[in-house]
Every structure is written in structure tokens, then in C-alpha cells.
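Q: I have 604 residues here and want to know how they pack in 3D. Can you give me a structure?
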Amino acid sequence: MILAPRHLLFAVILGWPLAASASELGDARALKDEAMAVLREASARAVEPAVYAGAIIKLQKAEELLEIAARSVPEDALPLQREVLAARFWAQRFSTLKVADALNKQRGVPTTERNEPARKEAPPAEQKPQAVAPPMEQKPQTVAAPAPRSIEETSLRVEQLMQDGKNREAAALLQSTLEKMPAGASGAEKTLLVRAKVGDYMYALGLYAGAEEHRKFVADAMEQKLGRENPFLVMDLKKLADAYKETGKLDLALGLYRRIISIEEKFYGPAHPEVAKALDDVAEAAITDHDWNQAEAAVKKGLEIRQKALKPGDLDFALSWCCLGHLKLEQSSFADAESNYLQALQAYETAYGKEDPRVAAILSQFGEIHKANNKFLAADSAFARALAIREKAAGPEHPSTATTLLGMGNHYLCKPDYAKAEEILKRTIAIREKTLGPEHVLTGVALDLLGICYTRAGRLGDAEDNHKRALAIYKKSGKAGERQIPMSACGLGVIAAKKGQYNEALSNFLVAVSFAEKERFPGEPMCVYLYSVADIYNAQRKYTNALPYIQKSVALCDKVVSPTAPAHVLALKIYAITLRGLGKNAEADKVQAQANAIQAKTKK
């Protein structure tokens, strides 16, 4: 009765914040960094109006470049787009008439033609931003000297490697440079600008622990400089919150996202679209934390704000629909997930066209929904279309292509077509090893899935090798790795059970349950781990030990798993065996009949 989980249980990550191969992304990042250097200096002391105006123009150019980049790798461009838009708003919000004159001059517009001050480019009138004092004045500070050549040269080299898709080499170079910096270094190498830049690079390369360290330094320094409630601080708080989320420090991330909401509500007012975006961040972090109530409250509040503040058809509504779709998919509410994703898909196809990669991410989610409902032909179509868009936009070896391939490989695993699944998963692993490195958590996820494929194909030795390698990666990867340990443990448990090594199998399944409970795993994953423990106890004729595990599994399946899901059927069958072993034959017959009825309905 022991089976590997039929569906990929978790960790299929939709987006991955790695730099695009397109030069537009690198150029936009450079322009943003140059502009932010001016804005950070302006928060402490006056700068020349022409210099300030030049920063605004650089942000405008960065916006244009990022829109081009978004047509090939939207997951890479989106974080930078949000940062650039926020920076441009704050720059114009605190500009002066002299800056406006300088801005018009640099744009080639005579100052005599200026009818409105530069700050007119602040939020639209209907958004009614509340008045707020400009950044708090501070005592004059010594302007840091330019960053040393070693840092500048490293930045240029890292950027080039990222543009060439050599993310692993870029990460190694950045780490090597940082390790060579003296522990007590002061001066230019420890300036705010250098730390901010290094933190952004490390985040883009998936080095989240390092990104967290540098972003916290910057956020703390800016808070000391500006004060806790200054709206300019929001950009650095969001960066730190994002890093906390990726390192698994979800409580800290949620606390910062809520602090951002508080600051923005005071500045914009409580019903502003920017507040809705911050609520989306809360919802996504809560989904990762499996806190459904908090996630649903946040995303619904954000949708209500957009319904009041925006015109029908505004593309920002798609952000709410995607967030709701993600939540419902994680809760196994497939009909609701499909409905929300369909609205987002229609909005993106209308705005960007049917071949845009922003459409591909939603198509992959449709593939997951169809797969979960055993609609394999529909899943075939969704994944194939998503992959074609990814390969055309980003290339066959980009990390975003690997993410789509992972979902497709899992689809063929469930279909089942093990030969096709193996082919696709091996390609996924090759891309991730090349771009992320052989020891990256996401490489481990693909290895685990290939291990499941080998187990079902009867290649237990190959399966065990893959699961053990994945487990070793997770154990070296901190909090982010811990969340994936149940997958490897469950896979090794299945292999041991097939070999008749029940004590080893039980040990692995209990590890899976323990880590899943610690991380508050939802739905199907926990159901599988629980009924696997019960199944081993049944095989050992320890029916009393099996009973609490299988009862908990069935109750959870009834609550959060689709009634026709294979995991639900298998849980009922194992429950029937447990009851029969306890001599409760009448109850066992009813449970078995329920399982048979679901199977008969599914076959139709």
C-alpha cells in the first residue's frame, strides 16, 4: 500500500528573482543605483538641483528599460520595477521648483513653458496623498568617498556574468570579494551605498542570508537618519522584509510588511493602491507561512481598496486575482483558484498579448490545477504553451524556463509517463546546476522529484541517490532548506518500505511529520506523511499505533484536499485496513465503500 505522493507536494516556486540575460535589466539596475546614491545623499544634505533632476531622469530611463526586460523575464524585472517606481515618486515628491526647472532644462523644455511645479508628477489627485514633512533634517555628515576600485570592478563583473546567465559564477565572485574584506573594515568599503548595492546583488543571486545582513545594515542606518515613520524608509524596509521571507523568517517579514502598511496609510491614506500592494506582500508571506486566515483577510482588503480607488479594468486588479488564486490553490480549492487565475489571465493577455511571459506564469498554474483534477490533456496544453513562451522570451536555459519545466515534469510523473518525466526533470536539474549551482535548494527540489520518478519506475537505487543528495543540500541550507526536508524524508521512507525495511521507513516518515508540523504544512503534504506513518504501523500489525495518525490524515483530507484526489482515496483505504485490524469490520466496510465510490466516479 505504500506509494510515493502522487502529486508534487510543495516547493514548486513560480518565480525566481535571478537577473535577466538581457542587457536592459543590468542597465536599469545601474541607473537605479546611481539615482539612489543621489537620493540617499539628499536625505541628509542639500544637493545641486541639476544633480537631483538628473537622478529623476535616470529613474525614468530605468523604467523604460525594465518594461522592455519584463517582456522576456517578468519575474526578474518586477522587483526592480516596484523599487524604481517608488524611488521616482519619492524623488519627485520632495523636489523643489529649482529641481523642476533643472528637470525641464535637461528634458529640453524651456522653463518659461513650465505651467506646474515638478511635484505635480506625484500621485494622481483622486488618490489624495496626505501632507507629510520631508525627510527629517540631520546634522551634516561627512560624504563617503567613492567605493574602492575593487568593489566597483566586482560590481561590473558580477553584472556582466548575470547578463550572460552565469549566475553561479557571479555568486562565487561576489562571495570571494566579500570574504577578502577585513572584518573591521571602515570607510568606503562599508559605506551605505556599497552595502545597499551588495545586498541587491546577493538577493538577485539567491544568496538570501547575505542579502539579509546587508539590507538590515542599510535599513537600520536609514531609520537612524530619517526616523521610524519617514515614508522614504519604506523602500529599504520592503527589501529587508523580502530577504526575511526568503530566509524563512516569516514573523519578521510579516512584521515589516505591516509596518510598511502603517507608514503608507499615514502618508497616502488608508484606501490607496500602494497600500493594496503592501497587503499583497502580507498575503503572500502568510501563504508561505500557511496562515490562511491572515492571507485571505489581507488579499480581500487589498481587493476592496482597488475596487474603491481604481477604475474597472485596471491591471492592478490582476495582482489581487493572482494572490487569491495562489491562496485557493494551496488550499486545494481548485475551482476558486481557476476562477481567479482566469480573470488574471484575461487581463494580462489583453494588456500584453498571448505570448508575453507574464501570461506563462499563470498558464503554469492552470497546468497545476488541471493536473490536480486529473485533467491531463488540459494540463498538457497549459504546460506546453507556458514552456513555449518561456523558451522564446528568456531562452532554453534560463531559471524561469527551469521552473516551468519542473511543473511539466511533475505533470508527466502524475500522468504517468515516467520516461518523459525523467527527460524533463534531468533537463531541469542541468539548468539549475548551471545557473544556481549543485548545492542550491531549488536544485534539491528537482532532485527529489526525479527521485520520486525513479521510485515509481522501480529504480530504487537511483531514487535513493537523488533523495539523499537533496537531503544533504537541505541540511546545509538553513531555514530555506528545512522546509524541504519532509520531501526527501518521505521519499526515503517510501524506498525503505518497498524494501521491507519498516523501522527505517517509519523513522523517515516520522521525520517528515515532525518537520511538516513545525512548518505548519497544509493540505495534501501533511495528509500523505500522516497516512504513510499509519501504513507502516499497519504493516507491522500495530493498528492501535496507526489509528491516531490515519484519523488525523482522513480528517485533514476531508477539510482541505479535493474529494477526488488520489491522496484522499488512499487515506480512506489505509483507514479501512486499520479499522479491520482493530476488529471494526462494519466501520471498515463503510470506509472502503466510500473509497470505492470516489474511484468509480473519478474513472467516469
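Q: Anything worth noting?
A: The domain at 522-604 is CATH 1.25.40.10 (Serine Threonine Protein Phosphatase 5, Tetratricopeptide repeat). The CA atoms of residues 79 and 86 lie 11 Å apart.
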